[in-house]
Amino acid sequence: MLKIDNLAAQVEDKVILRGLNLDVKAGEVHAIMGPNGAGKSTLGHVLAGRAGYEVTGGSADFDGQSLFDLEPEERAQAGLFLAFQYPVEIPGVSNMEFLKASVDAVRASRGQEALSSMDFIKLAREKCQAVDLPQDFLKRGVNEGFSGGEKKRNELLQMMLLEPKLCILDETDSGLDIDALQVVANGVNALRSPDRAMIVVTHYQRLLDYIVPDYVHVLAKGKIVKSGGRELALELEKQGYGWIDEEVA
Amino acid sequence: MSENIDQYLKSEYAAGWTTDVESLTIPPGLNEDVIRLISAKKQEPEWMLEWRLQAFRAWLEMEEPNWAHVKYAKPDFQSLSYYSSPKSMEERPKSLDEVDPELLRTYEKLGIPVHEQEVLAGVAVDMVFDSVSVGTTFREKLKDAGVIFCSISEAIQEYPELVKKYLGSVVPQKDNFYAALNSAVFSDGSFVYIPKGVRCPMELSTYFRINEAKTGQFERTLLIADEGSHVSYLEGCTAPMRDENQLHAAVVELVALDDAEIKYSTVQNWYPGNEEGEGGIFNFVTKRGMAHNRSKISWTQVETGSAVTWKYPSCILKGDDSIGEFYSVALTSNYQQADTGTKMIHLGKNTRSTIIAKGISAKRSENAYRGLVRMNPGAEGARNYTQCDSLLIGDQCGAHTFPYIESKNPTAVIEHEATTSKVSDDQLFLCQQRGIDPEKAVSMIVNGFCKEVFKELPMEFAVEAGKLLEVSLEGAVG
């Protein structure tokens, strides 16, 4: 589904990714771990096409299309979803309006008709329940005054509505207490399917107790330096990232 | 990134075409003879000419104000023409059927219902083209309800007592430089009178169009809501794209007698000038309402056009328990400059006022809110709530807030809140990452920001205003 080959990228002249390779197939869950500043968040932003993140080499192939030929919104429409570490607020734009615009845009790109307002409201309410968000969150401004946990659940709500092919979760565990983490992890697990892939970016092993990955990769100094199964995460938990740095050096 | 946001704010001005009609335009220049000529063209009574001349003499002694946060080359008042009328209007048509179809087409093209039989024509329209009113729809139907809706020129002829009593009663001739100029040379505008206890059966509206080059438009609107009456009025404005600046100096006076209610909405879309800041309308306007006991005056404005805007729709809350409201969205892009806000003058007991002002600046524009809240000694128990919010798009524009608060009554309560925010890269990226294209995203974010004001507009116009904002913002993202 996603094949990243020798990817290099920089942000404002600062080189962050240096020859990253990753192959993700449908149905798989990949965890990407690594020390702060390794380029974990950059990877998600580069794949999603954020302005200011410049690709300087390599390629990323998503379902047979070159990802970097697409505008950010086209990547989203093609089924790439990035769950943000710090979801931003959009005051005055109701969550409902935002979600409908988003779902309409994605449906339109698939040649589907826009949902009627009634159908959409019904669907949105259902999904709200699934992520344990009270329905009045639909009327509030996008993330406006939401707590950290509520923002993450709102991200999950968007993911459920858009039904993406590939979900990239960027440090979804940051700022969550154990209860909120459990809710979010349950939601993510419910979305696991043979047609869908996930990349879980995290600093801590803890999240992987809840979202159990098929593969674990260690990202350091802009490339994947070690890959393994779930046990690699536990090893990292015990030994920290120090030994990786030594190995790379 | 701010460049990114900018590129999504193209600014296509949809109303920028001209109408090809033969016009009679008097030569440029301003002196007493010109004023006599305007008055004669309108076959005005002597008292009206005297009133104009008084204003003109006062104007000669006055200086153009320069306290506003705007910079522009001062107009050369001797190079402007003060009266221009389509030739076909020389002999005043007796009904809409006699009006030159080319003129009516101008309004149709702007999407304004000019035929009474149109399904959507639940709105009565007065059409002002350069210096004259070319026609007013639904006059008969309104007359049945006792409502007078006509051009001010006709009102001077047909209802001189009302005009004499109220003209200049809210905005005196010498009120300010531009009001004095308007009082001297005003050409046309709308006149509305709602009799006691009458709820006006339909929305009233006036559409102003400047067509001729090198002319100014000086319209005068007078709206009187007698005791216990109720009216909702809307004005819209457009002009062709021209390289030179054109002057629009209007005066609007509202009188709400005891227990009356006036809702006055404006969608101002004068030509804003091009991307380099050339051309565009100078919009220097004085709007004020006098609120008597228990009456209510509500101003709603959506200002997206004009090169320079200088405009403060205000309320004098003279009567006890009267209410003043001001809801404003002012959007500036390219090199536009706006200095706009309101004055709420609390004189009566338990008077209340609400101010919600939203300023949006994009590209290299400057947008200022300027507002005065004054509690006079007699304003026992008066209250004001002010909220002004600024939204910046990109990093080369400016937003400014100049609130003035004067309280001379210790029982009065004044609240003021202000915020400034930006359409951020993060917001835009969030929208794009959810599949929404950036132009739609910016318009959604801006519309969200303006929501509190838009809900005050009459239904049909709320949609129009939202669309207008979209057009003005096309290409503004960066």
Walkthrough of the structure:
The complex is a heterodimer of chains A (249) and B (478). By secondary structure, chain A is of the alpha/beta class. Chain A contains 9 helices and 12 strands. In chain A, strand 11 and strand 12 form a beta hairpin. The model of chain A has no long low-confidence stretch (mean pLDDT 92). By secondary structure, chain B is an alpha/beta fold. Helices cover 23% and strands 35% of the residues of chain B. Chain B has 11 helices and 23 strands. In chain B, the strands form 3 sheets. In chain B, strands 5, 6, 8, 10, 11, 13, 15, 16, 18, 20 and 22 form an 11-stranded mixed sheet that branches. Chain B has a 10-stranded mixed sheet with strand order 4-3-7-9-12-14-17-19-21-23. A two-stranded antiparallel ribbon of chain B has the order 1-2. In chain B, a hairpin with a 2-residue loop joins strand 3 and strand 4. In chain B, helix 3 packs antiparallel against helix 8. The longest helix of chain B has 17 residues. Chain B is globular. The interface between A and B is medium-sized, with 33 and 26 residues.
Which keywords apply here?
A: 249 residues, alpha/beta, six-stranded mixed beta sheet, 29% strand, B: alpha/beta, eleven-stranded mixed beta sheet, ten-stranded mixed beta sheet, 11 helices, disordered N terminus
Number of helices of chain A: 9
What is the number of beta strands of chain A? 12
**Strand count, sense and closure of the main sheet of chain A?**
6 strands, mixed
Give unreliable regions of chain B as ranges: 1-8
Structural class of chain B: alpha/beta
Helix count of chain B, per DSSP?
A: 11
Unreliable stretches covering 5 or more consecutive residues of chain A:
none
Shape of chain A: globular
Distance between the termini of chain A: 32 Å
- In order across it, which strands form the biggest sheet of chain A? 6-9-10-3-11-12
Radius of gyration of chain B: 22 Å
